[in-house]
Amino acid sequence: MRVDEGQYEGVYWLRDDEDRLATRNLKPGSNIYGERIERISGVEYREWDPYRSKLAAVIRNGIKAFPFGRGCKVLYLGAGSGTTASHISDIVGQEGRVFCVEVAYRPMRDLLTRLAKQRENVVSVLADARHPHLYRWMVEECDIAYCDVAQQDQTKIMLDNAGYYLKPGGYAIIAVKARSISSVLPLEEIYEVEARRVRSEGYGIAEEIDLEPYADSHRMIVSIKKRGEEVGQ
Fold first, then answer.
1. According to the model, what pLDDT value does residue 5 have?
2. pLDDT value at residue 233
3. Measuring CA to CA, how many Å separate 202 from each of 138, 207, 209?
4. How many domains does the chain have?
5. Which distant-in-sequence residues (6+ apart) come within 8 Å of 184 by Cβ?
6. Are residues 60 and 40 in the same domain?
7. Do 150 and 36 share a structural domain?
8. Range of the domain at 35
């Protein structure tokens, strides 16, 4: 087996009988959710399954606008039990931060015990992402707002949080779950409406990419928060 650096900072390919996505383990000797660990030339890598992580899925599907990197501060809305957040933690490193917002107690408990207690760069926030002002004392200005919330108003949730915490020029990324928005409208119509909402709030769309075959009826919209002088252009 060999390891190759991918085109994205902190993301690797494990090459053997098949090509597997991975991140370098920030805390060697531990895993988070039962993922496979590989040790190559003294370095430990954690396999990143695209069927369990939408961010891994869009990497597999060739996303170009991938802003995550060492030292980034990331606001993660709908972090669940921490599967994807753990790989973001690997990528941003000790210099970065991942602020994990989750409203449900049980996944937050898992995130705390499996991830936040092991990693100093993960901050757990038990809160409803519909009310971003309630956790201002816990969250810093961020480079990236990443939203994976299965709610009808998911885009509004992302935009409200990005308004509070995302720095100008930062990236707002949402995994649009079309069937959480409407069970009857055509997928393309749903995606277009949500992209229009993002643009209307002063964001430029950098990229849109579907998640199939890893997740049905999902599209990732990657947008950039315009700086003050750019709004309205």
1. 87
2. 42
3. 25, 15, 20
4. 2
5. none
6. no
7. no
8. 2-47
Q: Please, what's the largest Cα pairwise distance for the chain?
A: 52
| CATH code where residue 34 lies | 3.30.200.20
Provide the residue count of the chain.
233
> Per the structure block, which two tokens stand in for 117?
């207690």
Residue 107 structure tokens: 């996944």
* pLDDT recorded at residue 228: 62
| Amino acid at position 26, single letter | L
Rg (C-alpha) for the chain, rounded Å, is 17
What does the DSSP 8-state code read for residue 53? -
Nearest in space to 77 (alpha carbons), one of 19, 136, 177, 150: 150
Burial 104-125 (b: 16+ CB within 10 A, else e): eeebbebbbebbbeebebbbbb
What is the token pair recorded at 79?
Answer: 């972090």
Which residue has 């992209």 as its token pair? Answer: 195
Q: What one-character-per-residue DSSP string does 72-116 give? A: -EEEEET-TTSHHHHHHHHHHTTTSEEEEEE--HHHHHHHIIIII
Q: What pLDDT does residue 76 have?
A: 98
Instruction: Find tokens 């990229």 and name the residue.
Output: 207
Q: Given this model, what pLDDT does residue 232 score?
A: 42
Per-block mean pLDDT, blocks of 10 residues, the chain (233 long): 89 91 95 94 96 96 96 97 97 98 95 94 97 95 96 93 97 94 91 95 96 94 80 42
CB 22 within 8 A of CB 48: yes
d(CA 201, CA 196): 9
